[in-house]
Amino acid sequence: MIEQFLHVVGGFQTIAEPAVFGYLVGGFLIGTIFAAIPGLTGTLAIALILPLTYSMDVTSSLVMCAAIFMGGQYGGSITAITVNIPGAPCAIMTAYEGNILMRRGEGAIALRSAALASMVGGVIGAILLMTLAPVIAQAALYVQTPGKFSLILFAFFVIIISNDRSISKGIVATLVGLMVATIGIDVASSKVRQTFGFPALIEGIDLMAVIIGAFAISELFVQVTGSSTEDRSATNNLLKKVKWSWRHFVPRWADYHLIGTYRYLKFAVIGYFVGVLPGAGGSSAAFVSYAEAKRSSSRPEEYNNGSIEGIAAAEAANNAMCGGALVPMLTFGIPGDTTSAVILGVLIINGLQPGPQMMTEQFAIVTPMMAALLVSALLIPITLLFLGPWYMRLVSINKAVLFSSIAVIAMVGAYVSTFSVFQMGAALVVGIGSYFMQRGGYPMVSFLLGFILGPDLEVYMRRSLDITDGSPSIFFTSPDSLFFLGLIAVFFYFMVMRPWMSSKRKRHRKNSV
Amino acid sequence: MPANPRRFRFGEFILPLIFFISTTIYLSDALQNGAIFRYGLPSASFMPIVLSVAMYLALLAVLIGQLSRRRTTNDRLPQPPQVSEEFPDLDAPAPPLGLGAHVAMVVVIAISFFYVLAFRQLGFAMSTFLFSLGLLAAFQFGWSKGVLGIALNLVVATGISLIVYLFFAVLFGIQLPGIGLLK
């Protein structure tokens, strides 16, 4: 325990180095700016810097990713409050309450409160990550090969059922990811398979090409097929009316006192634990926390009418989620949301295998990332103070120039990762496919998880079957495997069967009336 | 009778059809990899075959879901538009694309493939400049400004190429294909 504490202290010492701190600040600003611009996200920012991680050391890469993650969760609130355009989906609740305050002439207090809540939530999430992740990693060491197989199945299951729109589409997206992962060399026997007669496919589809295609190139198609000229002129007109200086963004004790320590803590803990669940993400964290805040509020009449508490609940939770989402990723190698899935890619690309082994034997490698998460949360109100008036101009950046630049960076990035034009083409094909899948309502996080975890799923399954000479009974007799299969059954009952039965009962009651 | 049946959307039936065809090609390749079990243990073709079967079942579930939703929507009487007091739904199904959007999409796909093919042949500078120019045209950048717009396009495309070059080659020391790498 003391050793782990010293590693955490070492993490803070590492980020205090000027070069690493530079990456932290740079990453934080990139994340904030990307999230503030509608259409761009923190995930996209990490996907774009992914090729550069080859030329950086692992620590700097992870520190930068953590800072982008934190900045990306916060940045969405800026345009959400000022122009009612949530830069990121997790800022929807903030837009809902914050823009009402903005129109009432209280925009500065909304922005200050969002920044303060994001900071508090981010700090609490990072502290919980530092304290709980090593404990969970110790427990994870007891998970054997059949248990690891069932754990990945559990992660797939949770991600699929968390797709509100359609469970079957979630399954299809996961299967597409798994199928793409099988292209190339068989992980267990080193036999070439699924190349369809194309020798170029022997090398398989690179993780970098998949991430860049799924998150950067697909966004280009989203933007080029959408029209937002009218919206932008209206936004620009709105922005011209706003005249703020840095004084408006100075944090005030009254802002903090309005919510209180207990409620901040509550919102952050909710966000953190929602983040731990695979597939939940910042939007779910913000929504669950907002709903709880509204239910237990002493001022419920303020909700839907510009509630500071509502903004605080959503922002504290979505920033605390950052710490939570990294727990399953670091301890089991299973990402909690899309951004942590891309960070998982950074770890894999740099030759690290996230899991209990890494957390116990290479804990020092990830502690700077944890420290970066905390420090970047502290940067939120500071940067708002200096850059607040400028943040709002981001929404008026020319779309053509912005997305053309991003497309070029993405395509060149896909090339530089392997110096292969084939992978560049693969990124493009994945981008086109991802665009159509997104339009059809197929969740990309399921696709990415299928692609990343597919090889592990197959290896653990085949190794387990090797032990019992091909008998699948091992999955039902091994206690750790049984535990995760039991969890699947519990989640299936509470998240699929019960809602289905209650909706059926409601329909029946309606029909009988 | 349904008052105004919805148009078929891409994601509803065409995408599952594409998945179905792709899965069939994938399965046929998997079947050529030899026996599914070897010495009683799963072989390299086991996982692809299992995934293909699961995909067929999932696609069937998707189709059933789409058909039942379609029937529900068509049976519903047309409702007057309401002023929504609910949260904006960013996950709502995407609206159908217009002709202009389709054309822009095809143009971007075409120029992106051209970029991939030309990247080594023309070198980074020329291919990136042309790619940027093509993308700006797809976004109709500066189209309303006449000759000035053309000049603006050329300047911005040069600027993008230069910034990306500085970013990758100068800042991070990554070697990019030079001009004249004709094979």
UniProtKB/TrEMBL annotation, chain A:
Domain of life (superkingdom): Bacteria
Transmembrane segments: 20-50, 62-83, 109-132, 139-161, 167-188, 200-222, 267-290, 363-388, 400-430, 442-461, 481-501
Keyword Glycoprotein: no
InterPro entries: DUF112_TM
Protein name: Tripartite tricarboxylate transporter permease
Record organism: Paracoccus albicereus
Keywords: Membrane, Transmembrane, Transmembrane helix
One Pfam family, short name: TctA
Domain annotation DUF112: ranges: 23-449
TrEMBL record, chain B:
Keyword Membrane belongs to the record: yes
Coiled-coil parts of chain: none
A Pfam family assignment: TctB
Record carries keyword Cell membrane: no
Transmembrane segments: 13-31, 43-64, 97-117, 124-143, 149-174
Assigned keywords, A-Z: Membrane, Transmembrane, Transmembrane helix
Residue ranges of domain DUF1468 in the record: 17-177
Top-level division of the source organism's lineage: Bacteria
UniProt-recorded name of the protein: Tripartite tricarboxylate transporter TctB family protein
Organismal lineage: Bacteria, Pseudomonadati, Pseudomonadota, Alphaproteobacteria, Rhodobacterales
